[in-house]
Design goal:
The protein is α/β, with parallel strands linked by helices. It is built from 36 helices and 24 strands. The strands form four sheets. An eight-stranded mixed sheet has the order 8-24-23-22-9-19-21-20, with helices on both faces. Strands 1, 2, 3, 4, 5, 6 and 7 form a seven-stranded antiparallel sheet that branches. Strands 10, 13, 14, 15, 16, 17 and 18 form a seven-stranded mixed sheet that branches. GO terms for molecular function: ATP binding; ATP hydrolysis activity; P-type calcium transporter activity.
């Protein structure tokens, strides 16, 4: 339906776009080499099928086409990267505050400015140390190129550096080789290539020297081409290089990574929002204070300096450092949970992830073919079927620490491992019945045969291959029964049932001979066979993934499978993991080509599985979800996943099976390759954001209390300020650091994974948060002024009234903030429910702050420095009573909120 609707409209657009790209990128890049006849390929590349290029021609082409290397983005210098950190609005406000602080004190009081500058520099250094950009991904891509390649030049085989390959070179490939460039196959024998890193195909792809394929053939189905940076797993070939460097498929991916900008994280957006609010508030404070001073006929310069000082006090200069440290602590906690975070803000981004786009091969599955079904014509022939599968096999079996280790084609290793599990050792069987002859697998016959001597004399031909092809060559079933049309239909039905379960099915058969024929060929060895059975295998899902998927749905997170594998296989795996549910749809990359991005953005929520997709498709899917306002996490391990990992809000690469390219483009690496780890990471991300919000809540509410105290004292023209500058500095030191950091390590609250992801674009001050800041800040300020008035007019001696009032206000404000830190530990739960002393870091922060404050209140030398005086029992009682009042009030508010069931009650 999609195709028929859009085909006519898009064909012209696609042709124009393709022509434009060919002009821009050059013929060698965009020519559809897989669709041309061999003679056309050789003609266009001006090379010889037998002799290749001459050395002189190769040298000339390097000058024209460039080295077979990937381009790297220009690396920014350390100074430029450091200055780039200064663009943040909060940093700019802090730098302005430092300058104003120096100016307001006539460059005498430099402590404030130094503290601010140290915080800014430390914050920038931490950010630079943690961040990784596309340069690492490109460096990893370069490392994937083989250092030497076997090339035919001037008719002779030689080895040259991979970087010196040019289009038109003839290369020779053998099992184990890393393909050095994109190339068209000219001739091959039993050639297979592992393209999983590029296409997501879970098993090696059989290659052949085919003539032109359809021009729109997907990358994974171009059987007459080999792709740069893939691995030859079997056979040999001669191929002509069609593209090098940035013109290769890997180069195209590198270009996608280079062109993709870093995604701004939700936390960065929230911090920018706070910076704007604080900047606006500071300007308002300055304007109001200055206006009040003019109305009171005070000295203009004095009022301006007072307004500037108050504006500086209004800025929580420790906030960027607190947020950075809380994120760093979260990173350390994540490492213990098998997740390495490379960018600090990525920790918090996980907390609002609402979609996880996951690659299938190696991420949701084990990336290891396994026999899961075995059907035999005669029930007692199970061992015979496994024996044939193990003998007609090129897998190498070795033992390490007593355990069998297989090396070879994944399909063949699955057969050897299945036999080994039932006590059939391939090495022992080959010793007893060694291979005397073989007919290698090829794509035309779709069969492989080996010949072995029998213990009683004669020979046995072991055959495995495509069931339909094998059945046509069989005359009987094991056990002697003739293979009639009805029995053939039964076997084909079993094959279809396995295929519907997305199993890769192989048939096994044999033929006994008294003596070998003179001519050993398919006609003499692979006819009149005895059919034994069918073997079904699959790359099975990871056992822990199904539970992780269920947790995703419970947490309001949508898991989506994006894979280069076939649609049938992908849907079967997704259905088993319950990613694909009733009402969900699956779509292929071929259909996506006919779907405009606007339509994909509208329909993206309908699709749970995307199959046979390219790197560009993955990026389109990620961006379609982002267009819907979703925060997207992308997991993957292959080169083909790298662009989407970069484009996603948070890219999660697999640490064990993941390629260096995927790791370089990602924000987080799962060291155990466990999909379930990302669910744990999401839980931690939600907890970390909640803790950052608690720290912001604490710092801003306390600062509001400080501002209100000074503001009201100025408005009502107190003859003495409740707090002097040195006390304000001390107050910030005691209350703005350790308690806020302690809130950053608050344990994740229960039920956090039962909530829906928060809206990444939602204001930090939504859901009554701004109002809570205000009323709690007003409460702290009024309690401080109450202490001041009681000290000034009620409790103290007339001669000591001002000094006592100042001391009581100073003591009350400091202790009030220390106690208030306990209130902020949970927005809803009672302090007594979560445990008053359950956060050990908070207990220590409180004790340290209290000891420091008591020292300046009680130790005579410090009393002189901080202008405090001794207080009597009554004054101490008032101070302590006022200091614990926030705990009582906040607990009462929380209790009312719980009873009324209103989460946003304030």
């Amino acid at each position: 339906m999609i195709r028929s609707y859009f085909t006519d409209r898009l064909i012209h657009i696609e042709r124009v776009d393709k022509a434009t790209k060919e002009t821009e990128k050059g013929e060698t890049c965009m020519s559809a080499w897989h669709s041309k006849r061999t003679s056309e390929v050789l003609g266009e590349l001006e090379t010889s099928r037998d002799r290749g290029l001459t050395a002189q021609e190769a040298e000339r082409r390097i000058g024209r086409c460039g080295k077979n290397e990937l381009e790297g983005s220009k690396k920014e210098g350390l100074l430029k990267r450091f200055l780039g950190q200064m663009k943040d609005p909060m940093i700019l406000v802090l730098l302005a505050a430092a300058v104003l602080s120096l100016w307001a004190s006539d460059f005498q009081d430099w402590l404030d400015a130094v503290i601010i500058l140290v915080i800014v520099v430390v914050n920038a250094c931490i950010s630079i140390a943690q961040e990784n950009n596309a340069e690492k991904a490109l460096e990893a891509l370069r490392k994937m190129s083989a250092p030497l390649a076997k090339v035919i030049r001037d008719g002779a085989l030689c080895r040259v550096e991979t970087a010196d390959l040019v289009p038109g070179d003839l290369i020779v490939l053998e099992a184990g080789d890393l393909v050095p460039a994109d190339a068209r196959i000219l001739e091959c024998s039993s050639l297979k290539a592992d393209e999983s890193a590029m296409t997501g195909e879970s098993v090696p792809v059989t290659k052949a020297a085919l003539e032109g394929l359809a021009e729109d053939t997907p990358l994974g189905d171009r059987r007459n081409m080999v792709i740069s940076s893939t691995v030859i797993t079997n056979g040999r070939a001669r191929a002509v290089v069609t593209a090098t460097g940035m013109d290769t498929e890997v180069g195209h991916i590198a270009g996608l990574i280079m062109g993709e900008k870093d995604v701004e994280t939700p936390l960065q957006r929230k911090m920018a929002e706070i910076s704007k609010v604080l900047s606006f508030a500071c300007l308002c404070v300055c304007a109001v204070m200055f206006g009040i001073g003019l109305l009171q006929h005070k000295e203009m310069l004095d009022m301006f300096m007072t307004a500037v000082a108050l504006a500086v006090a209004a800025i929580p200069e420790g906030l960027p450092a607190i947020v950075t440290i809380v994120l760093a602590l979260g990173v350390s906690r994540m490492v213990r949970r098998n997740a390495i975070v490379k960018k600090l803000p990525a920790v918090e981004t996980l907390g609002c992830a609402s979609v996880i786009c996951s690659d299938k091969t190696g991420t949701l599955t084990q990336n290891r073919m396994t026999v899961v079904d075995l059907w035999t014509a005669k029930k007692s022939d199970r061992a015979l079927a496994l024996t044939i599968g193990a003998l007609c096999n090129d897998t190498t079996l070795t033992y390490q620490k007593g355990a069998g280790v297989t090396t070879g084609d994944p399909t063949e290793t699955a057969l050897v491992e299945a036999a080994l599990k039932e006590g059939l050792d391939k090495n022992q069987m080959e010793q007893e019945s060694p291979r005397r002859f073989e007919l290698p697998f090829d794509s035309e016959r779709k069969l492989m045969s080996t010949v072995h001597p029998r213990a009683g004399g004669g020979f046995r031909v072991c055959v495995k291959g495509a069931p339909d092809v094998l059945l046509r060559r069989c005359r009987r079933l094991s056990g002697g029964e003739a293979l009639t049309g009805g029995r053939g239909r039964d076997i084909r039905q079993v094959n279809e049932n396995m295929a519907e379960r997305a199993l890769r099915v192989l048939g096994v058969a044999y033929k006994d001979l008294e003596m070998l024929p003179k001519e050993l060929s398919s006609e003499t060895l692979e006819q009149n066979l005895t059919f034994v059975g069918l073997v079904g295998m699959i790359d099975p899902p990871r056992q822990e993934v199904k539970e992780a998927v269920a947790q995703c749905y419970a947490a309001g997170i949508r898991p989506v499978m994006i894979t280069g594998d076939h649609k049938l296989t992908a849907v079967a795996i997704a259905r088993e993991l319950e990613i694909f549910r009733d009402g969900d749809l699956a779509i292929t990359g071929e259909d996506l080509d006919f779907m405009p991005q606007e339509l994909l953005e509208q329909e993206v929520e309908k699709y749970a599985v995307y199959a046979r997709v390219s790197p560009e498709h993955k990026m389109r899917i990620v961006k379609a979800w982002q267009k819907r306002g979703r925060v997207v996490a992308m997991t993957g391990d292959g080169v083909n996943d790298a662009p989407a990992l970069k484009a996603a809000d948070i890219g999660c690469a697999m640490g064990i099976t993941g390629t260096d390219v995927a790791k370089g483009a990602s924000d987080m690496i799962l060291t155990d390759d466990n999909f379930a780890t990302i669910v744990s990471a999401v839980e931690q991300g939600r907890g970390i954001f909640a803790n950052i919000k608690k720290a912001i809540h604490y710092l801003l509410s306390c600062n509001i209390g400080e501002i209100l105290t000074i503001f009201l004292a100025t408005v009502f023209d107190f003859h003495q300020m409740p707090l002097i500058p040195v006390q304000l500095l001390w107050l910030n030191l005691v209350t703005d650091s350790l308690p806020a950091l302690a809130l950053g390590v608050e344990p994740v609250e229960d039920g956090v994974m039962g909530q829906k992801p928060r809206d990444a674009h939602e204001s930090l001050f939504a859901h009554g948060f701004a109002w809570r800041l205000c009323w709690q800040g007003i409460m702290v300020g009024l309690l401080t002024l109450t202490a001041y008035f009681l000290g000034e007019y009620v409790l103290s001696d007339p001669g000591m009234a001002s000094a006592t009032a100042n001391t009581m206000a100073f003591a009350t404000l400091t202790m009030c903030q220390l106690f208030h830190a306990f209130d902020v530990r949970s927005e809803h739960a009672s302090l007594f429910h979560i445990g008053v002393f359950s956060n050990k870091a908070m207990n220590k922060a409180f004790l340290v702050g209290m000891v420091m404050q008591l020292a300046v209140l009680c130790v005579p030398p410090l009393q002189v420095i901080f202008s405090t005086v001794p207080m009597d029992a009554a004054e101490w009682a008032v101070v302590l009573g006022l200091a614990v009042t926030p705990v009582v009030v906040c607990e009462f508010i929380k209790a009312v909120k719980r009873m009324r069931g209103k989460e946003d009650f304030s």
